[in-house]
Amino acid sequence: MCGHATMVDLRGRRVLVMGLGTRGGGLGVTRWLVQQGAEVTVTDRRPAEDLGPSLEALATLPVRLVLGEHRREDFEQAEIVVRNPAVPSDSPWLALARAAGARIEMEMSLFLRVCPAPVIGVTGTKGKTTTATLCAEILKAWRPDTVLAGNMGRSALEALPAITPETPVVLELSSWQLEGLAEHALSPHIAVLTMISEDHLDRYPSMQAYIEAKRHIARFQGADDWFVLNRDEPRAWACRGTGMGRLVPFGRDAGDPTGAFLDGDRLVWRVDGAEQEVCRRSDLPLPGDHAVANALAAIAAASLRGARTTHAREGLGRAQPVPHRLEHVATVGGIDFVNDSAATAPAAVLAALASFRDRSVVLIAGGADKGVDLRPLAGEIAPRVRAIVLLAGTATPMFEDALRASGGRVFGPYGSMEEAVQRAASLALPGGLVLLSPGCASFGLFRDEFHRGEAFREAVHRLRERTRARDET
Q1: What pLDDT score does 154 carry?
Q2: Number of helical H runs and strand E runs in the chain
Q3: How far is CA 429 from the centre of its chain?
Q4: How far apart are CA 135 and CA 124, in angstroms?
Q5: For position 289, what pLDDT does the model report?
Q6: Residues of the chain scoring pLDDT < 70
Q7: First CA to last CA distance, the chain
Q8: CA nearest 426: which of 305, 312, 333, 340?
């Protein structure tokens, strides 16, 4: 539960930030801690040359840096350790700090305690970024001061100065961030769970452990809170009854008196049997069945927060694809190039292909292992695509074998995005598309899935320039 800010006095406290990172989260919490008067040390196993932009942003701040290693004494002497979401909760370094009496925090656990406004939190294996973004768009049509932050490279703590008790706040929350909230028995006022499928099984000991991490979003809710839940996805729907929040379903209309539903081609919001049409399915600017589910979840959460149907209609109408999620990059030689680099789980790949079921697709896939069995995915996609171009990675050899066994036309693996894009372009048909939807993590060839998507964009833009130059000669 949240919405009533708690004072957190950090003046003079010895705080250790574990993991600076390169996408803004560690940087944001470090700056905020300094503003609160804490004595801050940042420790990151990566060397300085890998953290350049983040270090430049900290250059003028009174922060002690320990790079390229962790030091035992830093964890033993810290009063508070703020861990990056990428740091496992069972890290021996955190165990060392706990044994020495330190409190373990994350940016989200600090934020939910100090935020003066009620928070909407969105999680799910797939759809959380798009749902959070759509929800924020709806709320901005009602209140332009709406804040969107969380697991998307935007620091929630740095947004605090602009947040009043009336400000709508939407956070995208990963399972790792939810672990940090659970440690302090925190859940958002409005919790949204989009769907659950196999993912991050390199980090969790079992699928059930992963599901339990997702359930944290509603586990500590009270009777005045809300739990917005996907009625159509069995693993998500099985999470009803978690916590004390009031259940609000979304999905295909099953006659529930309250919720957001698809009734024929109408997206409707219903409260105690009273129904209002928000829009038609054809009005949504985003492709795919999953986009409808994300829109329904966003309608429910935003409406519970106070937005009206007119705001929902306006917000959804101006929605744009989120970067790295079915993002159209360019059309080259009659071939569309689509960046879905954030599709790091099999369910996300299948959803992407369903969005283009009537198109000829060359799929770029493969990458680093997340502990997920890719054989079922291979069996699904092999007969549905024109060809599969593989990126090198620890998951790729097994994936390649499964694709070939399923009759897929497989090319690669390639050690660079440039090579993969060139090969995919040579295989695609005019009127078809090249889809980057890897189904795997990015590590090895790329820093993260965002770097992978950026590399795809750059490779496509270079292909376009070469094509233009050739056509002009």
Answers
A1: 77
A2: 16, 20
A3: 32
A4: 15
A5: 83
A6: 1-7, 22-25, 153
A7: 64
A8: 333
